[in-house]
Write the structure tokens for this entry.
Amino acid sequence: MDKRTFLQTAAVLIGGGAVVPFWGCTPRVPARTNWAGNLTYSTNQLYRPRTVEEVQEVVQRAARVRPLGSRHCFNTIADSQHAQLSLELLPRKVAFDEGTVSVPGSMRYGELVPFLNEQGVALHNLASLPHISVAGACATATHGSGVTNGNLATAVQGMEIVNASGELVSLSRETDDQRFAGAVVGLGSLGVVTRVTLNTEPSYDIRQYVYLDVPLDSVGQYFNEISTQAYSVSIFTDWQTTESTQIWIKERADQDMEPIEQELFGGQLADRKVHPVLALSAEACTEQMGAVAPWHALLPHFKMEFTPSSGEELQTEVFVARENAPAVVEVLRGMSDQLNPLLMISEVRSIKADDLWMSTAYGRDSVAFHFTWYQDWEALQALLPILEEALHPFDIRPHWGKNFGMEPAVLRSRYEKLNDFRALVNEFDPSGKFRNTFTQRYLFG
Ligand SMILES: Cc1cc2nc3c(=O)[nH]c(=O)nc-3n(C[C@H](O)[C@H](O)[C@H](O)COP(=O)(O)OP(=O)(O)OC[C@H]3O[C@@H](n4cnc5c(N)ncnc54)[C@H](O)[C@@H]3O)c2cc1C
């Protein structure tokens, strides 16, 4: 491939909600919310610069500002009392090099991945939805599944960040090993990530199929066998019924395709396309029933052109060391009566260990236990401490972008590189320009 292939498409308006002019803050701007609508941002000031130079200027002048991606976090990590800055109007320029691609931080995976595939290259994994921005996803250690797959941030090879003084700083894995490992899962705290360089590999196909009616006994008993069954495996369950328990298999056509069995660990091969929540229409879901398609079409569970998941929901996700997963399965089965009134569905996925300081998979092969809840924050606030207490023996790390109730001191104790991360943040942002209430509470105390 040509060493420098550039694509320039029109800037796509992805923000949703009202915005203010580049410099201004107008009191008439209606409240803006996150994707799920459970959070109204605390500021009506949103900067939307059109060039990197404008980003630098905004940051230099602002007293406080918080980078904003595609607004898919459920908690206040992206919120600000002062101002937010979105890169959605920056040019969509994609540049290829040998084995890597450099993309704007605000580009959504859904915009990027068909283009990558057209060029014959692929990413190693994707999240359940393609609607999220690359910088926002990597900043919170967003992940897909697969015991050999690191989270999406592990594909990052380089970044360009506008720091608090407005300088554009380049970091790369090759030349800035230590600082780089701290900066990638940056939690929006080092500055505005304007570009991200991602590892690519030759394009590959995925085959997807689903097993229904999986006995819950099998999930605990054969957890390792199930999760190593294919390139990417997800288990969906309500922790209570065989009927709601599904195994989604995403095989790589170039690695692990075997004849499809009718039965797997007691589950039956689905003869129809399904949604993880069986009662919901499967229209929004990616193709199943043994469909073979390029990686970007089948690694997510949901299609770009539809609303992912259920929409009106909350989410929680906790990460444990892989060896603890079967025990966690049993704990969750034991508390299914408590979970059930709020729980739409749970998903269990695997993530390979990495070296990124603030990653939820830092230093340990991990299993993520995810919960999609009905949108009842009051009830969830009461349930979260019970859930987290039950899982306390497993040293859980909560997903940075989802709902959790853990005390800041406990959360901080789960990250052995936290002090190094704080020092790195202070280097990029000595005055705390990018801090918000969330990072102040959970990272700095
Ligand atoms: C329906 C649904 C499904 C999901 N599925 C998954 C899943 O499969 N796996 C998973 O792990 N997570 C999942 N998530 C969570 C989601 O991936 C994360 O919350 C992710 O951070 C969202 O990215 P975003 O672009 O919307 O970021 P935002 O929510 O806008 O921001 C997130 C953080 O990134 C920072 N940030 C954003 N842009 C920049 C930038 N340019 N420079 C510096 N910092 C920046 C913000 O300051 C903030 O701290 C899901 C969420 C939803 C709503």
About this structure: Confidence is low (pLDDT under 50) at residues 1-28.
